[in-house]
Amino acid sequence: MRARGVVLQGVLAAAGLAAAFFVWQREPAGAPGEVVVLDAPKRALARVRYEDASVQVELFREGNEDGALWLRLGTKPVTAPPRELRANETAEQLFGRFAPLRATRSLGVLDAESLAEVGLKDSPRKLAVTLASGEHTFTLAAPAIGWGSPYLRRETDGHVFLLPPSLLPDLENAAHRLVDRTLHTFGPGEYDTLTVTSGSTSCTFLVRARAQRPAELLPRGAPDSPDEPARRWHERVWLLAPAQADFLGRGEVPPGGEPREAFRVEYQRGAQRIGQLTVARGAGGEFYARTEYTAGWAKLPPWADSIVLEAEKVAAGR
Question: pLDDT tens digits for 266-292?
């Protein structure tokens, strides 16, 4: 009987441990990845703000705009006004994941010791999600080596959740991952005329498409004489590497003041002007570009000076 009692106690103890483990691991609803932290439709989402000890990042839409998503980048402590840039497709996809906001697991309300263990005690990392109904705030676990998934604490009730590992890295590296570096809203086959202006001289080219070959540029004054040097030059202009450029925010002026125009390319489709590229020289000799789409100036890599040097010849038609 004594042996049977020992066995029974062991079974009960094991069952108790299993129950405790289940309570820790339980999810309030749904399968892994379906725990709802913040239940809201995407149309109600207005703003997502992330901050830590050194940066502030916001994704937001403006009611008076065309529905485009914007990215605001700031520093802590504040040393300059935040930079506002167009957000890219990655940002659009990320933004939509915050309404509804889902986690892979709910850990319930943790005590102070457990909060410290998962990095939530006194963490400087914060997340705020603004809906049409108001703002919802969260604390994010401080980063630590070896963590593959971030913990989040809902401030309204203290509940702790385990977020998917892919949710926050883009916000943490927003300046590199979320900036829209697109220069034009149209493609290379959507214009049939372009005009190059440098100083007081300009030249207009007709664009003639060729099957499986680059389109030709034909000076309007000599439509039977393709200008191959101009075509090669414009190909370099069109392929200016925005990934290498430092994009300034809307309303932001480069150091030393507004740059001086070096050359301009204007694009037309029929009689309609559909866009332009302006390249200008900054006070320190560096070059900047802006287009019909960019929020402001984008600083170009040093090799852009060779394009500027050739622009005068192309504009003069020689």
Answer: 999 999 999 999 999 999 999 999 999
CA atoms of 31 and 24, how far apart (whole Å): 15
Residue 243 has pLDDT above 80, yes or no: no
How far is 90 from 174, CA to CA, in rounded Å?
A: 10
- pLDDT (mean) for 307-318: 92
Q: What distance in Å separates the CA atoms of residue 136 and residue 123, rounded to the nearest whole number?
A: 17
- Report the candidate in 97, 100, 116, 106 with the shortest Cα–Cα distance to residue 154: 106
Q: Around 145, how many Cα atoms within 13 Å sit in the side-chain half-sphere?
A: 0
Residues 6 or more apart whose CB falls under 8 angstroms from that of 13 comprise none
Residue 64 has a pLDDT of 61
Least Cα distance to 46 among 152, 170, 134 occurs for 134
* Spatial distance between the Cα atoms of 139 and 157, rounded to a whole number of angstroms: 12
CA distance 272 to 269: 5
Domain locations in the chain as residue ranges: 29-177, 193-315
- Please give the backbone phi and psi of residue 129, each rounded to the nearest 5 degrees, phi first: -115, 120
At residue 166, the pLDDT reads: 86
DSSP state of 243: G
| Distance from C-alpha of 71 to C-alpha of 256, rounded to nearest angstrom | 25
Task: For residue 230, report the phi and psi dihedrals to the nearest 5 degrees.
Answer: -65, -40
Burial of 58 (0-12, 13-18, 19+ CB in 10 A): buried
Which stretch, 7-21, 98-112, 230-244, has highest mean pLDDT? 98-112
